[in-house]
Amino acid sequence: MPYGAVMQRESPRIGLDDVHRFAVPSDPALRPDGGAVAYTLTTVDVEADENRAEVWLAVPGAEPRRLARGSAPRWSPDGRTLAFLRPVDGKPQLHLLPMDGGEPHPLTSAPLGAGPARWSPDGTRLAYAGPAAPQPDPHGTRPAYASPAGPEPDPHGTRLADAGEGLDPNAPVVIDRLDYKADGAGLLRGITTHLFVVDVASGKSTQVTEGDFHAGEPSWSPDGTRLAFAADLEPDRDLRPGGAAYTVLASGGGEPERLTGPDLLCGGVWWLGERLVAAAQKGGPVGHVRLFELGPGGAAEIETGLDRNVMTGHPGYPGASPALLGGDLVFCARDGGCSHLYRIPGGALATKIVPEEVSVAGASSAGERVAYVAATPHSAGEIFLLEPGETTARRLTGHALADADLYLPERRTFTAPDGTLVEGFVWRDENAATPGPLLLDVHGGPHNAWAPVLDNFRVYRQILAARGWTVLAINPRASDGYGEAFYTAAVGAWGLADTQDFLAAVDTLIAEGVADPERLAVTGYSYGGYMTCWLTATTDRFKAAVSGGPVTDLTSMSGTSDMGLLLKAYECPGDLAAQSPLTHVGEVTAPTLLLHGESDDRCPVGQSEQWFAALRERRVPVRLVRYPGASHLFQGGGRPSHRYDYNERMIAWLEQWVSGSRS
Ligand SMILES: CSCC[C@H](NC=O)C(=O)N[C@@H](Cc1ccccc1)C(=O)O
């Protein structure tokens, strides 16, 4: 599809088919001379029911162009070669694209696939974190890696390991520790993530870390002799949260050298010039991530002057790795629902360098320039370039849905009964009849946040607004972007602490005459699915509910989720039953649609099954829709047909059960 061109649309309003029309850029890489940005563009192949990843190039003043099939482009230090990932026989392998002419050619043939490349400072080697085969099993009982039900296709090829390409799907799986599965990868069967270094000239690959742990993304020392990475090497790491910063010899054969102590839970470490910067939590796994400078004297927190969570970027949690901009540190932190880029000029506090209404999902700097990808109220993602001396970044791409007439979110502040201010966003047609039906939309986490930007999954917001609904997305306490006290305000009090925030916002819109109290509905995913069930079990306000991938029973979650221990010991310490919707399921009357990925290892489908059975037994209208092969993150990277179905069923359910809503 050429730049800017989108398939013809029949209506100026967004429709269900637009789930297939979004083109979403990610992973920008600014050329070392600052003159061009390579990035991944993800589109949908409707026929194949797959997401398609391509490497594109944006040059200021020219139309972006497609370079190659693949993802995760990285420039060589001289700017003449792009390394990127492309699947070969279903496994991501590093390829090289000479930028002064020539075809891309494969560099690696790693048995389990490679990961995104990091060039050595002299451009002779590439490091990556990728899957490593299981260690020999001393008892001889561990089967070779295999997964009977393979996960969804991964167009970027950057997932931990595709454990679905195994040998014997019927082999027993032997489990001795809690970390035997991970959402998205499924059963790990002994596969670990390790660091590899590939010689560019010969293609020879060396595994530089090994052992029973997972190594995080590598970062080169300025002299090219060592790699820094974050990992948890403790033997009982499955029993408590961990993670430390390490360095290891890039040539292989060395032991990792630990740089941080047990007081920091380190999630990433980067060599920025001569500085080693780590992103870590201090004091426990539920709280803000902060930046630390690592030196001979230990780790010193970098003073930003912000009470904001540092966002290094994870699926569903937009952000970017810290980087240098003209010698100053730049990093991402969440503010008011959006991930923003900040710069710390020498000796001063952090300053925001992006507009308020964008959410940054990746950044790359060179000299005094920084390129970033951000969602905006009008687009699910565009590439921007901030030039030296400029305060406004230039948009280099136009991947927004052309000619779509969007309902733009209105930023609102509501006051909870205890006086707490709660922010939210409202989508509605200002000409719609009032009072009208209202859908309360609850985000997951619970430490994620809604942002006032276009979302390539939730087209239901636009469609419902066109049909006279108001969609209300609230950032209640526990949301990210409002300070650490707000972030931790529902620890041990899921549902108990935040219900008032949702109801205060709903009641405000009722009092304003916008929402009809007889036509209220609620939806949400994951923690949002939890809250959907909780609100229908503990109030009688909602006429219908659509609960996606929910947590319904914290007791069974603690032994079945890949994050069960974190949930039980740190998020919901105390009385699990008191915080579980299932305790109150006998009160539910709202017809409920449950939408769940069958391969969800974060909130296993049994959570929906329990809710379904309890409602069905009491003859409350309920339907469970299971998406085969879909992980917890299927809304972002899952099959296009599943994303379409999710939106279609939600709208149909709401219109069926919230009477009088059809315009
Ligand atoms: C400290 S929350 C970590 C859990 C995680 N957050 C980010 O990805 C997550 O998946 N949250 C779920 C709900 C959940 C929370 C804890 C354990 C299992 C599931 C969500 O997306 O809402």
From TrEMBL:
InterPro entries per UniProt: 6-blade_b-propeller_TolB-like (IPR011042), AB_hydrolase_fold (IPR029058), Pept_S9_AS (IPR002471), Peptidase_S9_cat (IPR001375), WD40 (IPR011659)
Keywords from the UniProt entry: Acetylation, Hydrolase, Protease, Serine protease
Region (Disordered): 97-168
SUPFAM superfamilies for this protein: alpha/beta-Hydrolases (SSF53474), DPP6 N-terminal domain-like (SSF82171)
One Pfam family of this chain: Peptidase_S9
Every Peptidase S9 prolyl oligopeptidase catalytic domain range: 457-659
UniProt keyword annotation of Cytoplasm present: no
Purpose of the protein: This enzyme catalyzes the hydrolysis of the N-terminal peptide bond of an N-acetylated peptide to generate an N-acetylated amino acid and a peptide with a free N-terminus. It preferentially cleaves off Ac-Ala, Ac-Met and Ac-Ser. Also, involved in the degradation of oxidized and glycated proteins.
Protein name: Acyl-peptide hydrolase
Organism: Nonomuraea monospora
